[in-house]
Amino acid sequence: MTLKATPLNSAHRALGAKMVDFGGWDMPVNYGSQIEEHNAVRHDAGMFDVSHMCVVDLEGANARTFLRGLLANNVDKLQVPGKALYSCMLNPEGGVIDDLIVYFFREDWFRLVVNAGTAEKDIAWMRQQNDATNSGLTITGRRDGDKAIALVAVQGPNARAKVWEVLPTAKAASQDMKPFNVVIVPDTAFGEAMVARTGYTGEDGFEIGVPATQVEALWNALVAAGVKPAGLGARDTLRLEAGMNLYGQDMDESVNPLDAGLAWTIDLVSERDFIGKAALQAKGQNAQFLGLILREKGGILRAHQKVIAASGATGEITSGTFSPSMQQAIALARVPMDVAIGDTVHVEIRDKKLAATVVKLPFVRNGKVLAA
Amino acid sequence: MNIPTDLKYTESHEWVRREADGTLTVGITDFAQDALGDIVFVELPQVGKALTAGQDAAVVESVKAASDIYAPVAGTVTEVNQATADAPDSINTDAFAAWLFKLKPTDAGAYDALMDADAYGKSTGN
């Protein structure tokens, strides 16, 4: 199978990136040291090519009504143009088809950014629902073709200042912008840019979308401004420290999102009906999604390791790694309901049972270690 | 990629050096450390443990994955390198200095059957 490539593929190779097959995409895992890239994001500014993710535009008069039924989070939280919302898109059984960010531009134009591996499935599902509800929307995936949008996430305490060096015309529109907001800047040196104060690292920064033809020039300008290219390896350790779920690992179609730490995004309060709501109400929450810090030497916490509570009830690690910020093995885990924050549990690593402490997520936010 | 010519190699990316006393020193290759990325944990075998050829003997974990390290030939573990376990990133710095364990081979001739640098280089595309 030929791997898919983003418009930045040759730029990654020019920087000496180590490329890997990431769900069918030829992507940089690092450009030398994953830990250095991680630390650049925590302490200065780093950037990620996230053009494998897919921008999907929903256009039409019924866009809001459609999204009220499609998404588990309440799109009515988006009342001011430029606001963004994180949400799951569920199947009728309450499983997670994908997690995404929805950006509100106009009543007849909402934009979603969806995961790479699920994009085709997501668009097919949205079109099926569009037909089923006679919503009459135009649904356009914008990863390929003439109108393709490429995405770069610039993250870190100095990320915004460095972006403004490269996109000076975006400064006025974005300097007072709150987190989880977006603006379209029509006149940058790299064409029309979407500048969103969203990200996936627990740090401040922007996610920037520009025409795919312009993204290599933008990337090179950001390199020149001192933004360190970071690979998917650092992206994973950063998001894990930030306690953020990864689709396909911490949740998927087989996992109840209430058990995956996503209850805060599932609107079971309002009268609004949405796909999967009845199933979630029937199932309820059956596990907790919490952090673990390994307290004994003997390995690194990894996905699928068994977690044993003091009561004997068991859970499972969904994501685990060595935390560069904490210099300890950490994990996201689905643990039994009788486990409390501060408890000691045991994790099976190879032939050993090693002690770990249960902590509240996130581990790290805005450069500060919160759990230790 | 650095592949010293005075060592022997395995398909599973261990390097092996025959010492003057006939024991074999084992580590992981430069190719392996590069593929693993930042190494953060090393688990060494017990001294005195008898291993068959190809048996898992040690574990090296990088930020992204755990990797078993196999006995290149059958033998008994005579010594382990605690300095490498205490500073796992020393493998990234110099994979051929940061050895993992020493083995007294059951069959002294088994070493000669391992790959030389040329063959290992070809097997890794170098």
UniProtKB/TrEMBL annotation, chain A:
Q: Does RNA-binding show up as a keyword for this record?
A: no
Q: Which Pfam families match?
A: GCV_T, GCV_T_C
The cross-references to InterPro entries, in alphabetical order and at most eight, read: GcvT, GcvT/YgfZ/DmdA, GcvT/YgfZ_C, GcvT_bac, GcvT_C, GCVT_N, TrmE/GcvT-like
The terms describing its cellular component in GO are: cytosol; glycine cleavage complex
The chemistry this enzyme catalyses reads: N(6)-[(R)-S(8)-aminomethyldihydrolipoyl]-L-lysyl-[protein] + (6S)-5,6,7,8-tetrahydrofolate = N(6)-[(R)-dihydrolipoyl]-L-lysyl-[protein] + (6R)-5,10-methylene-5,6,7,8-tetrahydrofolate + NH4(+)
The residues covered by the Aminomethyltransferase C-terminal domain are 289-364
Identify the keywords attached in UniProt to this record, alphabetized: Aminotransferase, Methyltransferase, Transferase
Q: Which GO terms describe its molecular function?
A: aminomethyltransferase activity; methyltransferase activity; transaminase activity
In the record, biological process GO terms are: glycine decarboxylation via glycine cleavage system; methylation
Q: Which residues are recorded as binding substrate?
A: E207
Q: Which residues form the GCVT N-terminal domain?
A: 10-268
Q: Which Enzyme Commission numbers does its entry carry?
A: 2.1.2.10
Q: Describe the function of this protein.
A: The glycine cleavage system catalyzes the degradation of glycine.
The record's subunit annotation is: The glycine cleavage system is composed of four proteins: P, T, L and H.
Would you identify the family this protein belongs to, as annotated?
A: Belongs to the GcvT family.
> Any idea what this protein is called?
Aminomethyltransferase
Q: What is the source species? A: Massilia litorea
From TrEMBL, chain B:
Superkingdom is Bacteria
Pfam families named among the record's database cross-references: GCV_H
Report if keyword Acyltransferase is assigned: no
Q: Which residues, renumbered to this chain, carry the PTM N6-lipoyllysine?
A: K64
Start and end of every Lipoyl-binding domain?
Answer: 23-104
**CDD domains annotated for this entry?**
GCS_H
Report the cofactors.
Answer: (R)-lipoate
The UniProt subunit note reads as follows: The glycine cleavage system is composed of four proteins: P, T, L and H.
Role: The glycine cleavage system catalyzes the degradation of glycine. The H protein shuttles the methylamine group of glycine from the P protein to the T protein.
Name of the protein this chain belongs to: Glycine cleavage system H protein
Source organism per entry reads: Massilia litorea
What gene codes for this chain?
A: gcvH
